[in-house]
């Protein structure tokens, strides 16, 4: 069917990414394959882009392959073939493939193919041979400026913050924006209309596909085997392929599927409505079992809870409580533990021990001790294996409870060794490091041990290694290396001890200990001016950790971010900060390394108010849980923050830190902060007990300051004041908006935009838009 371009819809806004790709293909005469879910605006986009041009339009839903006319007049032609997802029959596919092969070989014909799905298998040979330019669904989404411009054409005007929130939640999805525009900006009405539209689509699927899509809606991400386990359908792979070809309702990458847009939110209510209790229990049980087999305990519990499988929930909680806090999920599962009836917990020594450990992690010390005493009572009344289990758990808590500190650990280790040798207890697995690159500041604070490091290594080193089993391999050498490092001892001896401990840990020990050894070597590289080598070491370890100990990755990435501060890699720091744990949502003591890294990020970007708030949390935690090292580190950083906030208490904070660190001869707690802390040490008047310690601290801080002059350097944010309009312009520029769009959005003239741009460029010391946006992001202004 030959079509002349229709009159342009004045309300239509072109999506920028799709427009750029389309124009590129048009200039190169490269054939286009455009896909997206129904209603997303595929055909409307093509019609708008072709404008007044003549083109032949066909719909595969109603036109067979033979009806597609192949011009042979030597003139240029545009052929649009829509609705390719409707070609399901094998013979039809062959006929269409043959027809398309002839079309795309003709250099005078520009083909534009439109479908709801990614390129299907039957078209893949043509794609490989001739390479379509792909315009995918996401390319059809509007940026924030496009979203605002579209809504404005419907007389829907939103404040900038509301518009930003809408864009963050919807991502510029044209289908939702269309419903929102027609609803006059009423989000609830638009959501209801979208739900009705989805039901219309759903009713077009066959029954088997409907049921399958509902069943897999309980999963966030899944592959074909996971879908088969949950649904019990042997043809899950074929159904997934049908779902992909029917419409772009699922997205697939490397064999992993997920629902597109918000369709999953619509499928789950349908599942609850259309399936009875027995069917739902079957689906949720299968999903829970599948997650459990994959080691995803949190999702397994969610599924078992949804299916009412209380016995499975209890079984998983007991199994998790058998693990140490570094490998278990105490904090993440706290809701499930705290929901358990006390009388039920008191039937299991493992659960009682788990509750004592959880409450200690949550800093509820009295409650932790209450559960400890209940476990003591259980042990006194029990016999046989139950008594042995309870005594083992008590011994585990004696050594491992975070709030008890490390004062009595030496005697406890000797007692534990006796109990183990006599067969009176079996000690559960410990984690000395809690997944941190430190033993001195790992699962517990061992600063006191550093005062007698050589003596303790000789007297109880073998006992500790025996009690801790695999976690004890290499422990003595690595612990000595770390203690020597913190005191600023000879680098050669530190390297020798760290490498020895690392090799011992790698030979039948634990990767957690290897992480500590690597961490010591990394810090030595940084101190010697080789931050790049330090990053290389961490990257090599990361590749190994991903395969063997993924629980280390969170702290490993924080460590890499710490090194990035020395290298001045601001974009990498920004990226890490965006994903860092939110201390205002749930403060988790197990995230202490990431929190202290985040504090440095706040300092780097001049957010001293946020740094101050987080440091107050860290100090409360550290003092309550007897963490001397974190107290010192937090005080040091707090002094830096208060100095930059021009508050007078910075000097007393730094004096207290000096006194505490001097007691242990911890030089490196200062050295790591280099020039950032040297400025304070020179600005104040401090009392030092040992002149040798003072000289070493100042010498190393000066050296680090020379090597990394931009580390936590006080930025110019205080000197740079940008107006609200200037900041809004920068934010919109970051979203890709053009000058005219910005002027329209902010109700100002283009000359005003230009004026603000000139002033912003001058203040930021840049010469263009892209540089201004980058510099503003680096400074934390936007």
Distance between the termini: 51 Å
Count up the helices.
Answer: 40
Quaternary: single chain
CATH topology of the domain at 2-140: Rossmann fold
What is the spatial order of strands in the main beta sheet? Answer: 1-3-4-5-2-6
Question: Mind summarizing the main beta sheet?
Answer: 6 strands, mixed
Portion of residues in beta strands equals under 5%
Structure description:
This protein has 782 residues and is mostly helical. Among the domains are: 2-140, Rossmann fold (3-Layer(aba) Sandwich), CATH 3.40.50; 144-201; 431-568, Serine Threonine Protein Phosphatase 5, Tetratricopeptide repeat, CATH 1.25.40; 580-707, Serine Threonine Protein Phosphatase 5, Tetratricopeptide repeat; 724-778, Arc Repressor Mutant, subunit A (Orthogonal Bundle), CATH 1.10.10.10. The strands form 2 sheets. It has a 6-stranded mixed β-sheet with strand order 1-3-4-5-2-6, with helices on both faces. A two-stranded antiparallel sheet has the order 7-8. α7 (174-182) crosses α8 (187-202), α15 crosses α18 (349-361) and α27 packs antiparallel against α28 (553-567).
Outline the secondary-structure elements.
Blueprint (H helix, E strand, L loop, with lengths): L1 E2 L12 H13 L3 E4 L6 H9 L4 E5 L17 E6 L7 H16 L3 E7 L8 H7 L2 E3 L8 H10 L6 H11 L3 H9 L4 H16 L4 H9 L8 H8 L4 H11 L3 E4 L2 E4 L3 H12 L2 H17 L3 H10 L3 H12 L12 H6 L2 H4 L3 H13 L3 H17 L2 H17 L8 H13 L25 H4 L2 H16 L6 H13 L3 H16 L4 H17 L3 H18 L4 H15 L2 H10 L12 H13 L3 H17 L3 H17 L5 H15 L3 H4 L2 H10 L7 H17 L16 H11 L4 H8 L3 H15 L4 H10 L4
Parallel strand pairs: 2-5, 2-6, 3-4, 4-5
Antiparallel strand pairs: 1-3, 7-8
């Amino acid at each position: 069917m030959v079509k002349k371009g229709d009159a342009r819809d004045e309300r239509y806004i072109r999506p920028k990414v799709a427009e750029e790709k389309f124009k590129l293909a048009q200039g190169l005469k490269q054939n286009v394959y455009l896909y997206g879910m129904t209603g997303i605006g595929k055909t409307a986009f093509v019609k708008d882009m072709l404008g007044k041009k003549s083109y032949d339009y066909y719909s595969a839903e109603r036109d067979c392959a033979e009806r597609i006319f192949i011009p042979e007049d030597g003139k240029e032609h545009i052929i649009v073939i829509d609705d390719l997802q409707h070609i399901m029959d094998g013979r039809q596919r062959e006929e269409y493939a043959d027809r398309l092969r002839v079309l795309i070989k003709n250099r005078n014909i520009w083909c534009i193919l439109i479908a709801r799905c990614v390129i299907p298998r039957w078209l893949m040979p043509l794609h490989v041979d001739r390479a379509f330019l792909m315009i995918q669904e996401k390319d059809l989404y509007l940026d924030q400026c496009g979203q605002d411009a579209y809504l404005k054409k419907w007389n829907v005007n939103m404040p900038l913050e509301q518009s930003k929130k809408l864009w963050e939640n919807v991502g510029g999805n044209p289908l939702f924006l269309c419903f929102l525009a027609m609803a006059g900006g009423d989000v609830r009405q638009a959501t209801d209309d979208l739900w009705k539209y989805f039901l219309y689509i759903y009713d077009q699927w066959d029954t088997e596909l409907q049921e399958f899509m509902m069943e897999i809606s309980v999963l966030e991400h899944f592959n074909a085997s996971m879908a088969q386990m949950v649904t019990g359908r042997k043809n899950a792979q074929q159904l997934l392929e049908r779902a992909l070809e029917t419409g772009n309702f699922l997205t697939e990458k490397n064999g992993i599927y997920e629902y597109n847009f918000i369709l999953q939110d619509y499928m789950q209510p349908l599942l609850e409505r259309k399936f009875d209790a027995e069917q739902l229990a079957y689906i949720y049980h299968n999903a829970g079992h599948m997650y459990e087999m994959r080691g995803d305990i949190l999702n397994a519990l969610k599924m078992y809870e949804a299916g009412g499988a209380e016995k499975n929930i209890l079984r998983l909680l007991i199994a998790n409580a058998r693990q140490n806090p570094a490998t278990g999920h105490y904090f993440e599962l706290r809701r499930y533990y705290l929901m358990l009836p006390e009388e039920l917990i008191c039937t299991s020594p493992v659960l009682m021990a788990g509750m004592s450990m959880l409450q200690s992690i949550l800093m509820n010390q009295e409650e932790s001790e209450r559960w400890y005493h209940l476990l003591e009572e259980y042990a006194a009344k029990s016999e046989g294996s139950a008594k042995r289990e309870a005594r083992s758990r008590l011994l585990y808590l004696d050594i491992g409870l975070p709030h008890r500190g490390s004062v009595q650990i030496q005697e406890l280790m000797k007692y534990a060794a006796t109990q183990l040798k006599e067969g009176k207890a079996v000690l559960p697995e410990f984690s000395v490091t809690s997944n941190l690159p430190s033993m001195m500041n790992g699962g517990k604070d061992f600063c006191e041990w550093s005062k007698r490091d050589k003596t303790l290594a000789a007297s109880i080193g073998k006992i500790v290694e025996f009690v801790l089993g695999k976690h004890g391999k290499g422990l003595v050498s690595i612990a000595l290396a770390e203690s020597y490092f913190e005191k600023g001892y000879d680098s050669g001896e530190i390297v020798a001890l760290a490498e020895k401990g690392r090799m011992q840990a790698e030979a039948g020990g634990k990767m957690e200990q290897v992480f500590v050894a690597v961490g010591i070597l990394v810090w030595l590289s940084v101190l010697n001016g080789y931050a790049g080598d330090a990053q290389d070491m961490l990257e090599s370890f990361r590749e190994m950790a991903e395969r063997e100990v993924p629980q280390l990755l969170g702290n490993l990435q924080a460590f890499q971010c710490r090194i990035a501060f020395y290298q001045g890699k601001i974009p990498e720091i920004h990226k890490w900060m965006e994903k860092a744990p939110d201390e205002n949502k749930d403060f988790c003591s197990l995230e202490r390394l990431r929190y202290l890294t985040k504090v440095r990020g706040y300092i780097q970007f001049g957010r001293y108010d946020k740094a101050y708030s987080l440091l107050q949390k860290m100090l409360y935690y550290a003092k309550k849980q007897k963490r001397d090292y974190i107290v010192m580190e937090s005080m040091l950083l707090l002094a830096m923050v208060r100095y930059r906030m021009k508050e007078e208490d910075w000097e007393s904070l730094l004096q207290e830190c000096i006194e505490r660190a001097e007691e242990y001869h911890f030089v490196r707690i200062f050295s790591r902060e280099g020039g950032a802390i040297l400025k304070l040490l020179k600005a104040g008047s401090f009392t030092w007990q040992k002149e040798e310690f003072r000289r070493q601290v100042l010498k190393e801080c000066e050296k680090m300051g020379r090597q990394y002059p931009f580390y936590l350097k006080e930025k110019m944010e205080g000197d740079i004041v940008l107006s609200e309009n200037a900041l809004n312009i920068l934010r919109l520029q970051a979203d890709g908006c053009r000058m005219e769009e910005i002027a329209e959005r902010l109700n100002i003239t283009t000359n005003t935009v230009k004026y603000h741009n000139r002033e912003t460029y001058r203040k930021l010391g840049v010469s263009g838009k892209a540089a201004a946006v980058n510099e503003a992001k680096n400074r934390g202004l936007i």
